[in-house]
């Protein structure tokens, strides 16, 4: 196993694992330009994966698709999914179940952080919905994943679990003091791995990068956060 460190680029990692990437069908959620998902999609395409670009905004999906298409022979498909709407999640899952190929890997990268308190159309706290509940999408597309010879699930997490577990008695975040969505994502990963022997599941903290993630956060919001020196 080669040494990867803070200077290792996506291309370098992709090159090392090129034989495992080639020919795989991979869904990546949250592929807006400038984020981790868009770059993940680019590197996957570069090494020969068929990439399903999934996001809530078709305009942003298309912008990323245009950028990734600079990779020769990029094999891309678009999937609109709003993780904050169970109706949209179910609709997207139906679309995936209609694909003619198995899904080898799903990377649930999409997420939000520090958004103002609000509930989704389904009455679920927005951050828990987008980061965790919406990604029950995986459960809905399981038949397609389990058709693959070696299916993988990669769940996007952070260091959020250091800040608290899941308050099951207050899942809708009524007091808004502590995060819990990324801890819930990790529990989801453990539960998936325990229930489906064929699935290999990873909860991955991508590291720290300046993306659009904190675009709704103010300095005051950051000051209210627990110790950020982990970052
Ligand atoms: N950046 C960091 O330092 C850092 C650190 C730790 C963990 N992470 C994790 O890395 C992942 C990617 O974040 P990023 O930093 O690349 O931020 P980003 O650029 O904001 O990417 C987040 C993506 O999630 C999408 N998304 C948000 N809500 C959605 C919804 N309801 N339905 C569908 N898609 C939705 C966003 O779409 P829109 O553009 O439409 O909003 C965007 O494409 C997240 O899970 C985040 O928690 C990032």
UniProtKB/TrEMBL annotation:
<dbReference type="InterPro" id="IPR036291">
    <property type="entry name" value="NAD(P)-bd_dom_sf"/>
</dbReference>
<protein>
    <recommendedName>
        <fullName>NAD(P)-binding protein</fullName>
    </recommendedName>
</protein>
<keyword id="KW-0560">Oxidoreductase</keyword>
<dbReference type="InterPro" id="IPR002347">
    <property type="entry name" value="SDR_fam"/>
</dbReference>
<dbReference type="Pfam" id="PF00106">
    <property type="entry name" value="adh_short"/>
</dbReference>
<comment type="similarity">
    <text>Belongs to the short-chain dehydrogenases/reductases (SDR) family.</text>
</comment>
<dbReference type="GO" id="GO:0016491">
    <property type="term" value="F:oxidoreductase activity"/>
</dbReference>
């Amino acid at each position: 196993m080669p040494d990867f460190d803070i200077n290792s680029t996506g291309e370098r990692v992709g090159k090392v694992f090129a034989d495992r990437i080639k020919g795989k069908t991979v869904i990546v959620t949250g592929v807006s330009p400038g984020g981790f998902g868009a770059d993940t999609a680019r590197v996957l395409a570069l090494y020969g994966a068929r990439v399903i670009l999934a996001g809530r905004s078709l305009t942003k999906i298309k912008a990323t698709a245009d950028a990734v298409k600079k990779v020769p022979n990029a094999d891309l498909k678009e999937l609109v999914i709003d993780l904050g709407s169970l109706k949209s999640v179910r609709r997207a899952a139906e679309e995936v179940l209609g694909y003619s190929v198995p899904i080898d890997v799903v990377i649930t990268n999409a997420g939000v952080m520090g958004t103002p308190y609000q509930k989704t159309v389904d009455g679920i706290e927005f951050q828990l919905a987008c980061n965790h509940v919406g990604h029950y999408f995986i459960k809905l597309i399981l038949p397609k994943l389990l058709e693959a010879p070696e299916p993988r699930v990669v769940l996007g997490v952070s260091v959020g679990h250091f800040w608290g577990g899941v308050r099951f008695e207050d899942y809708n975040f009524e007091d808004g003091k502590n995060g819990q969505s990324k801890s819930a994502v990790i529990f989801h990963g453990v539960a998936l791995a325990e229930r489906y022997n064929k699935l290999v599941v990873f909860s991955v903290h991508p590291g720290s990068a300046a993306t659009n993630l904190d675009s709704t956060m103010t300095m005051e919001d950051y000051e209210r956060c627990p110790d950020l020196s982990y970052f």
